[in-house]
Amino acid sequence: MKQHHFTEVEMKRYHLLQEVQNGHLTLAQAASLMGVSYRHAIRLKQRFLQQGVQGLKRRQPAQPPHQKITPQLQQTILQLRQSIYYDFNLRHFQEKLALHHHIDLGYETLRQLLIQAGLHQPRHKRKVYRRRRRMPCAGMLVQMDSSQHRWLPEVPTMWWLVAMIDDADGYVYAEFHPQESTRANMSCLMHYIQRRGLFDALYVDRASHFKTTRHGGLHYEVSPEQADTQIQRALAELGIAILYAHTPQAKGRVERLFRFFQDRLIKEMRLAGITDYTQANRFLQEQFLPWYNQQYTRCVPNRYRALPEEVDLPLVFSVREARTVGKDNTLRFRGQVYQLLPTQGCKSWAGKRVEVAQLLDGSEAVLYEGKRLRYVVLSEPAPRAERGEELLSQRQYVAEQERKVWKPPADHPWRRGWKVRGSVIPSKRLDM
Fold first, then answer.
1. What is the value of pTM for the model shown?
2. Confidence of residue 383 (pLDDT cuts 50, 70, 90)
3. Which of 1, 149, 225, 424 matches a 20 to 30 Å C-alpha distance to 96?
4. Same domain, 164 and 26
5. d(CA 203, CA 320)
6. Residue 147's beta-bridge partner residues?
7. pLDDT of 190-200, one tens digit each?
């Protein structure tokens, strides 16, 4: 048989086995040069001695493989890709085929099938950067960030997804909010701690609700000592350190999480028929996050600490403003008057500095040295904007032609003139 029918590997094996047969090489040396095991070299030598060069050719299987893609199966896959999963990436499409349609295919097999059908365009490989090593234990570092995106194509308003991910085991918690605010981040932090417990450090960017900034920019501080933000104060009460990243690449784990969510979460909500963000939050908490955490959370040692029973977590994650109590034991806060009631330890709060805490559920509390005070609301005036609208609604506008022009009488001082320091200044009469 002509040599051009053989591959380079088969020809190399042929020449090496000839050297073994002539006694110039040992079989162990030939196996090392062929890149096969010694046991497989014995099989090749036996086939070479029995069949000659034909014994070295690759053998075709007696029957086709069981996983061979039939034309009917190929047509089914292409129809599913075009009708339902047209915007899914290949890995997501592969998982859906196995989960809902019982079609188990390898990633590369599916990729080549779609490329041949013209339904997938291969992309150039991006440059891969070295990633920071994960923390050894869960609860040592938690990354937090927000992503504004059009998560529901039917809703034109872009909402924010506030997310937290453990740096070690990859556990994720997230919430949808209309704005990226202090309350939105506090809500995510509180619910995360309720689920997992207290952790050591929080890794965030230098946004204004995490770090006090001044007019000079994010990296400019007027004085070394600045007032803490509401989140800094809350984390300090819980003994959680806060670390700041100077670049988005520094907290790449949560940044990559948003890229994953912007791909899969949007498509999963489309399949589930989600049309508003109330349904989106429910779907996120009840279905998507449990699936994600079960699929991608790693098993590592746990360092989360249980929340002490005496800690009132909703009170910790509240927005507080300081007020000074008046001599009549009252304070004013946003147009309302609060009357503080005496307690067993103190009968008068006059002159003391207290804090008014606004909880995330809309309730309020008055605090002195971290303890709640009893109070009653004496007045609840309408907001200024509402009072202004009420006054404007009471005005009566008269048409220009209906207005009556007032004319002074003949004995009016304006007609007779008036005295200025003993002298009389005659007034000018108008042509009435």
1. 0.62
2. low
3. 149
4. no
5. 23
6. 161
7. 999 999 999 99
Total domains, the chain: 4
**Which CATH number fits the domain that encloses residue 150?**
3.30.420.10
Is 427 inside a domain boundary? no
Question: From CA 415, how far away is CA 430, in angstroms rounded?
Answer: 9
Instruction: Tell me the residue range of the domain where 44 lies.
Output: 3-56
The partner residues of 353 in beta bridges, in order of sequence, read: 324
Q: Identify the domain boundary among 281, 296, 311.
A: 296
Q: Are residues 193 and 246 in the same domain?
A: yes
In a domain, 280, yes or no: yes
